[in-house]
Amino acid sequence: MSQSAPQHPDHLAPDTVVVSAGRPERTHDSPVNPPVVLSSTFFGLGEVVAGDRAYGRYSNPTWDPFEETLGELEGAELPALVFASGLAAVAAALSLVPAGGVVVMPQHSYQGSLALAQDLAGRGAVKIRTVDIADTEAVKAQLEGADMVWLESPTNPMLEIAELGVLAKAAHDAGALVVADNTFSTPLGQRPLEVGVDVVVHSVTKYLAGHSDVVLGAVVTSNPELQAKLLTHRSLHGAIAGPFATWLALRGVRTLALRVERSQATAAELAARLQQHPRVEAVRYPGLPGDPGHERAKAQMNGFGSIIAIQIRGGSAAAEAVTEALQLWLPATSLGGVESLIERRRRHVNEPASVPENLLRLSVGIENAADLWADLDQALGKVQD
Hints:
Blueprint: H1 14-20, H2 63-73, E1 81-83, H3 86-94, E2 101-106, H4 111-122, E3 126-131, H5 136-140, E4 148-152, H6 164-173, E5 177-181, H7 186-189, E6 199-203, E7 217-221, H8 224-237, H9 243-253, H10 256-275, E8 280-284, H11 294-300, E9 307-312, H12 315-325, E10 330-331, E11 341-344, E12 359-363, H13 369-381
Parallel strand pairs: 2-3, 2-4, 4-5, 5-6, 10-11
Antiparallel strand pairs: 1-7, 6-7, 8-9, 9-12, 11-12
Helix pairs in contact: 2-9, 3-4, 12-13
């Protein structure tokens, strides 16, 4: 299996890498795109050694181009590892915590990550300390004896911004491993490995694949020892990606830069308008000058992302009424696709109680900005006092 470092020139910009990386070797009549290899096993004689494909749970040639491309995008010295889902990738990263070890996690983060950590804690596998990840000093106060610090920035769904580099250094000084979920920002928005993070996690389902048609995850690291442990976890636990889904994800990555550019620009416009709407109680978007995380995001991110969180006047009933009145926005979970999605997050029983009942998370897609605003405006206008 291919586990060599990406071979692209260092000077290529990320919006070129998304298109050019992971291509087949340039030989006469070679395909422009890598093929899908549908095989559960691979021919071989003699002893199976490291690097052999051997069996479909260990390797598939279709994984390699995607893993090399994502590794390059994150600035890693090694290819990424693709997993069956974002939560499978999260599980692999959490497996790096020693038995009974301590994990410091944001109080607001992907609810699947929190739920899995809580499940592990309930079985005595780990101990959890939840923190306000935007409060750097409060996080530092919880680092003594920690084995892993889990970072997410912006957080899901509250859009808090963590000081990634500062917290990574503090965690390392305390002897802890650092993992960052980079799903919201994508490697185009920030590259956590470059500021000291050890492992980056992605829900490939979201922006990377970008079309709401696959469920995949990935982990990225530049540490060979950590990668070996993560690869062993994937092989032994069977959390492997289907080849066709991985091929679709790579095809989605090809347009990542264009999709992110469009959706970020629209998100900024919508957030500014929503801030002025009388039916909106509060808006969280790091791109707004008055947002608590604005200055920090401006300093460490390339763009402010495409997710907006708003609170609707009138409580949860009013928030639900807005989603029911929408005609273009799709009320659905998930995010990062070409279509604009909206969801009241507290409809999920696992969502932290500190997430307001009237909060709607908006995942801005690539539709016309005026059409998206018109739909929001008409839906907000139908909410009764």
